[in-house]
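Q: What structure does this chain adopt?
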Amino acid sequence: MSREIIRTDQAPQAIGTYSQAVKVGTTVYLSGQIALDPQTMSMVEGDTEAEIRRVFDNLQAVARAAGGGLDDMVKLNVYLIDLANFALVNQIMAEYFDQPYPARAALGVASLPRNASVEMDGVLELRR
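A:
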């Protein structure tokens, strides 16, 4: 199968040697998103809640560019500097996703790019 590179101006441009997402057949692999504003390429201002919301918005923008949405997410990986924010991720995630929720992993990490407190990546399976 051929690979299709997914790109949108509605999400931050890659800050390294990667694509925003890669689509193979009906599967889309979304690269990690941190709380970068796609217009300014600066970290969003505010607290961890603001970062989490921006990350979900960025993932949603890339998913839409691939022809899907967050409802097509089958796997989500969450990387947190402070696992005490796990409950906050759950709370906000419930606003972006409907049941049944995707499979998910949450990992505590020592650091993230741009001093972000959260990063997420995932896999979509397009139904269309």
